[in-house]
């Protein structure tokens, strides 16, 4: 049909936009792809024609031209239950989402735990399906970040991994946060301070245990360590183990809020008053620590949403080829004192 008209129900084409705007097909393509090599008059005519016709660019065709998918992936090396149950992950995802909302990039979420799942995911991520990848909750010397970089996929890691040093990552000052928490307990006169540490194949688990040990140096307070996986169930198991080992524990620093809350349940089962008999400190400052613990949980605040935002900002910069002045970002933590300590 003449003059860029179209039949009812027919999807508008690039040619229809060009005819309506009175320009060539190439000019329309340059406007859609953001090229500066278009006059303002032509750009305005094309944008007006796009609006009038309701034209939607063909994403597949645009991808062939620009080699961009406008999609990024967040990979979490945990189970679906952990991801949707624990508030840490929700905070990071909210932060990523808020930062990406300003860019037009779409986010896909992928979870992989086993070696086979990682292999399938690696094949997908390196197959030009995404423009970049963010990874959180890596365990051990996971080869995925290095392989993605080798294949030219911009990558940002959340949390310092163990055994590898990625080019770009965002982390909390976990060691300083743990040290502050345990020093606070020492300052309150606690002398049998146990810790429920996180997994030692994760940087966060290693650093928070190191902070606990830093605070005990030169105090004469003996170490008493049990390990969990950051879940509430593991915190309860570790607390039972600690009490069996030393019934006179008077304080517990847990490396996550869920583990701290699991420990509190067990302490109550054993008739220990919190904080009179045993003070408890967690790490996260999650909403659950404020709303669902009794007494309210003293905890180390970590800015999880800001972590997500910083990860997204770094990734977008890398996708756009911008030089990174600070490819590694470490965020501050601080102690929030409530009723449990």
From TrEMBL:
Q: Name one GO molecular function term.
A: DNA-binding transcription factor activity
What PANTHER family does the entry give? HTH-TYPE TRANSCRIPTIONAL REGULATOR GALS, LACI-RELATED TRANSCRIPTIONAL REPRESSOR
Q: Which residues cross the membrane?
A: none
The record's PROSITE patterns line, in alphabetical order, gives:
HTH_LACI_2
Sorted alphabetically, the keyword list is: DNA-binding, Transcription, Transcription regulation
**UniProt keyword Transcription regulation, yes or no:** yes
Q: Which Gene3D superfamilies match?
A: 3.40.50.2300, lambda repressor-like DNA-binding domains (1.10.260.40)
The name under which this protein is listed is: LacI family transcriptional regulator
Please report the stretch or stretches of sequence annotated as the HTH lacI-type domain: 12-66
The protein's organism comes out as Thermopolyspora flexuosa
Which InterPro entries does the UniProt entry name for this protein? Answer: HTH_LacI (IPR000843), LacI/GalR-like_sensor (IPR046335), Lambda_DNA-bd_dom_sf (IPR010982), Peripla_BP_I (IPR028082)
Claim: Cell membrane is one of the keywords in the record: no
